[in-house]
What we know:
Residues 61-215 form the CP-type G domain. This protein has 3 domains: 2-59, CATH 2.40.50.140; 64-214, Rossmann fold; 222-286, Probable gtpase engc, domain 3 (Ribonucleotide Reductase Protein R1, domain 1, Orthogonal Bundle). Helices cover 28% and strands 24% of the residues. It is built from 10 helices and 13 strands. Guanosine-5'-triphosphate binds at residues 110-111, 113-114, 136, 158, 160-166, 213.
Amino acid sequence: MTGYITKGIGGFYYVKTSEGVVECKPRGIFRKQKITPVAGDVVTLETENGGAVIAAIAPRRNVFVRPPMANLDVLFLVASTTQPTPSTLVLDKLSAIAVDKGVQPVIVCTKSDLAEAEFLRSAYEKSTLPFIRIDYATGEGLDDIRHWINGRLCAFCGNSGVGKSTLLNALLPDVERQTAAISQKLGRGRHTTREVTIFEAFGGRIADTPGFASLEASRAGFIPKEGLEHAFPEFGPYLGACRFTGCSHRSEKGCAVRAALAEGKLSQTRYDSYCAMYDEVKDVKEWQRPKGM
Length: 293
Ligand SMILES: Nc1nc2c(ncn2[C@@H]2O[C@H](COP(=O)(O)OP(=O)(O)OP(=O)(O)O)[C@@H](O)[C@H]2O)c(=O)[nH]1
Ligand SMILES: [Zn+2]
């Protein structure tokens, strides 16, 4: 029997299969191999001593350590127009890590009733990142989010106070009922919201990830300087067209990326974020790079 892990608590895992949610433990072999199953993992279950055990974990498309989850398709980067003030650098760092891990970032702008969304919209207009403006008065943007969720495993991340819970509740008014239903099945009295929990909704899956509230780019991933240009997908058409191979796109003559920027084909804030990220990693030596990210 196969399924995917919806939640893991205290060494137990809850696996959604075609026959419902099954509580199980991983086989001892995983501990020996130092592999920890995480929410989102696709697993094969077998019966051992009358109980279900995780016998195999399918190869992961990607994995995050904090919050622990695997096989993410879409990361919604939630930013508010104000309160808190948005930072394109933070958004660009997180989106770069997402792209580097093969996750589609989608920028979601909240609190459009409190301040203009124009600053954020124009920052992403020349990027390839989808930009969704939410307006609860008209319902604008909510269908776009539902479309992105359809058929995919998604998570929401953003600073405290940007409006993630508000958005989730607007999308899924019965979220509390679902949470209750799932925790009842979990039994054992372990009712906690600290763990990643995956819900099914809108033809896809949403990971409720408390940890993504404080997702810190520096902990979530490390992109070496050679990889950085690929984490800004809109640079793609210009890569390889620079005069010098190995061009860092900062000050070299004949740089096609800078030419595109000068022609207004690229966003200045995105380019500035690229340069800031490049500066942060340019002197990090091979042996100093964080492992396992
Ligand atoms: N005016 C306005 N207020 C909003 C909007 N979205 C959220 N808020 C308010 O902003 C505050 C924070 O919203 P939350 O949904 O709790 O934010 P969060 O991102 O879940 O915050 P954490 O739980 O701390 O991570 C609440 O008082 C919300 O009512 C919006 O679109 N417009
Ligand atoms: Zn260049």
